Amino acid sequence: MSNNTTRHILEINLAMLFVSTSGVLGRYIDLPPAVTIGIRSFLAMLLLGLFVKWKGFSFTLARKDILAIALSGVFMGLHWITYFYSLQLSNVAIGMLSLFTYPVMTSLLEPVFLKTQFSKMHLLLGVLVLIGIYFLAPSFDTENDYFLAILIGLLSALCFAIRNLLVKTKIGSYNGSVVMWYQTLVIAIMLIPAYFIFDAEGFVKELPYIGMLALITTALGHTMFLFSIKRFSVTAASLMGSVQPIYGIILGIIFLNEIPGWRTVLGGSLILFSVVVESLRASRNK
Question: Does the structure show a pLDDT above 70 at 205?
């Protein structure tokens, strides 16, 4: 494995650690998800805008790319909102792990969106991730909120997979921070009505945590993830990114005292195995 490939794999894992803070913060912030995501996007837009200006990156988009990047912002917003609803209905494990069916969805959608060759190995590894998630989920009882949380998490996964595929062909032309800035701009504008529809009382005391969400999870984590997509296929990046729930569960143990059982350990081991296999495959194919 080359030094560059090792560094790229470490970078995507650091990105996933940052992004995984969304589980704990999403559970802790006591606001309607649409309001939280609207404020998060506005703050992230400001942070990313300052970073882009400081680095001297261009904000200019080719006319042919505007629609795809705008749509990716819409799907990113839908992904965030549904993910936070899933977290509020369950716990960090259920919320994050139901979301992490998205590598399976990506492996099925990538040949359609990007006209790439279908890989049976990607499908097998995706199935392995799905089996791992089955063991991680504590309950599939239709009479409790966990089942609804899983359904909403699956919708969030679909939105995230589509978002990643939409930006895949555009990332090579633009800096990742610029793409993320446009996505947060779209989301911030899209969710302006949420402030008038939902009760946002008490949002001031939640601002420090939403600020952390904007800086660590969004500005740093998601931008680094966008950079990683440039170095791997969307499916490879998605599968290697499956380590995120493990980081999220560890943070849940530390900050929320959500202790996983043996099913979580078994499921997490299956996911980590698929991550290692895909990392090795990706390094050989680079």
Answer: yes
